Amino acid sequence: MSLHPSTFQYLKPTDAQLEIMAHVRAEFESLATEIDGIVPDGPDKTYLLRQLRDCAMWANIAITRNPDGSPRT
Questions:
Q1: Distance CA 50, CA 58 (A)
Q2: What is the pLDDT of residues 7-35, one digit of tens each?
Q3: Are 21 and 63 in contact (CB under 8 A)?
Q4: Degrees, nearest 5: CA angle 69-26-39
Q5: For labelling, which of 4, 12, 55, 63 has a CA lying 20 to 30 Å from the CA of 20?
């Protein structure tokens, strides 16, 4: 599979994409807050919360780009 030339470049989200991103970010924050309140402190919890953060960033990519890296319209 060839990647789109803009795959590793900044892609400014559209206004509609920004709204979706804000919603998704709020859902991740809600989940992280819930997990923070019920999972005991320790390295596993730290890892879990970092992975959630990573997933939230990948969600932004999925919202703005197609599988080949081209901009999603």
A1: 13
A2: 888 889 999 999 999 999 999 999 999 99
A3: yes
A4: 105
A5: 4
